[in-house]
Write a structure and sequence with these properties.
Elements lengths: L2 H20 L5 E7 L2 E7 L4 H8 L3 H27 L3 E9 L4 E8 L4 H4 L8 H15 L5 E8 L2 E7 L4 H8 L3 H17 L3 H6 L3 E9 L4 E8 L4
Antiparallel strand pairs: 1-2, 2-4, 3-4, 5-6, 6-8, 7-8
């Protein structure tokens, strides 16, 4: 099956799954399959009930509701990705851009060789992006042991940070506060990321969305920049 056909099949499935689960699906879905990575970018995705929650400043309830639903949907999404692509997903990340009514799903194949495929990969501004991510990480938590990144396509930049958790966060996770920690970290880190004006100058384009999520078991974090399409 060609990549375009696989991307179309995944987009169609995700759209129906989200409509059935949330009562309203995204206006558009962009799927990228590249080097054992699958990204699914959602645009204009928000139900009337969710909009009402945000209008009443109930962001916490909004986040918890979506997180609860995603726990049931992730196994289905991973299973369908395997059917369409043949890839077994060993990691899965997601996040929402509330200001843009957007969202991202990131599936990482079990056979992804980050050292050979990503650490040696180069793109314009890579070193400066890593330096800026390192600087921001130090401000909000600690410097990661490693950062690696890859431009999946002209508008999607995916980064990973390894060994990002501090000891108090590890203890909160051990005591069962992972959900609260995730929501807190998401709010804090995205405030720093969105208020940073260096990324656009480094990448020489407008940044439309920034997403961030964590795999606490693996002590890893994923960051996605969605940039303006090239003209």
């Amino acid at each position: 099956m060609a990549d375009n056909q696989r991307q179309t099949e995944l987009a169609s499935y995700i759209g129906k799954l989200l409509r059935d689960s949330f009562g309203k699906g995204p206006e558009s879905i962009f799927v990228t399959i590249e080097k054992s990575v699958v990204t699914i970018y959602l645009r204009n995705f928000m139900s009337p009930m969710e909009k009402a929650l945000l209008d009443q400043d109930q962001v916490g309830i909004f986040q918890k509701t979506r997180d609860s639903l995603m726990k049931t949907l992730i196994p289905e999404i991973k299973a369908y990705i395997k059917i369409v692509t043949g890839m077994e997903m060993s990691e899965f990340y997601y996040d929402w851009g509330l200001h843009n009514r957007s969202g991202i799903f990131i599936g990482i194949g079990a056979d992804l060789d980050t050292e050979n495929l990503w650490l040696s990969e180069s793109y314009e501004g890579k070193e400066q992006v890593h330096q800026e991510i390192m600087r921001l990480s130090k401000q909000v938590e600690k410097a990661p042991a490693e950062i690696y990144s890859h431009r999946l396509n002209p508008r999607t930049l995916l980064l990973f940070r390894n060994d990002i958790l501090v000891n108090i966060e590890k203890e909160l996770i051990r005591q069962g506060y992972a959900e609260i920690l995730r929501i807190t970290k998401r709010t804090l880190e995205k405030t720093y990321l969105h208020n940073n004006n260096h990324f656009e100058s480094i990448l020489d384009t407008s940044v439309i969305d920034i997403f961030v999520d964590w795999d606490f078991d693996k002590n890893k974090s994923a960051i996605v920049f969605i940039t303006k399409p090239p003209t």
